[in-house]
Amino acid sequence: MKFILGKKLEMTQIWQDDKVVPVTKIVAGPCFVVQIKTKEKDGYEAIQIGFGEKKEKNIKKPQKGHLAKVGKNLRYLREFRSDKNGGEGEVKVKVGDVIKVDTFVPGDKVKVTGISKGRGFQGVVKRHNFAGAPASHGTKDQLRMPGSIGATGPAHVFKGTRMAGRMGGDQVTVKNLEIIEIDKENNILLIKGAIPGARNSLVLISGEGELKVVEPVKKETKLVTKETKKEVKEEKKEIKHKEENKREEAKAVVEEKQNNGKEDIKEETNKEK
Fold first, then answer.
1. Please, how many CA atoms are within 13 Å of residue 107, restricted to the half-sphere of its CB?
2. Where does the chain have alpha helices with state H?
3. How confident is the model over 214-237, as pLDDT tens digits?
4. DSSP assignment letter at 130
């Protein structure tokens, strides 16, 4: 199983031969593996990945400790269940590994999960696709009314009765969507059709196949010891000493020029006299 997190941008259309294909543009990844959950420790097997960036001032200390091994201030954290981790046919994942869009290939069938747009309080016609009352034969102001909700015998409304209420803002999953194009340079996926959610909302993309991960580039870290600290201090002192010498030389040059100018002025005045 392969998966990635992304942000929905917009819908557009592209040409394939002589057909126009409607697609949704998604910025996907790079995602970082934050935690690997196991049955022994957590009761189930899953891989937690992170996506996006967040300002350091908005991250609390527990979150910083959780993200310490990754070294990134991640905005979103989500989990994907995995029956195997490093078994046959799968890549062994480590904390800190990077998942990019190249883990998918054009033509892959994927499942996309997102939060649908919130539409507020809506009636039964819009929320449940009720037909409404007929517009003729004396119907006055009951066109979009729900009508009867049942007999009076039970003396209460049954749970789950379709009525007016809050609509949208729910988790929605769309299956069997096809990936049309992949832009590896800009981390963009073009997925055929519409997906749930508003612009800039988080989406979870998963599909069948082998997950490709990339090891992060390790930065060279120098061990800080007492000797290195002394060397740094000495270098700073030398730099300061050189800067002071340069300033003194510049001052001396300026003073010489000023003195020479004064002497020239005196000579001119004497000649005039």
1. 1
2. 39-42, 61-66, 124-128, 226-272
3. 877 665 545 556 677 778 888 888
4. -
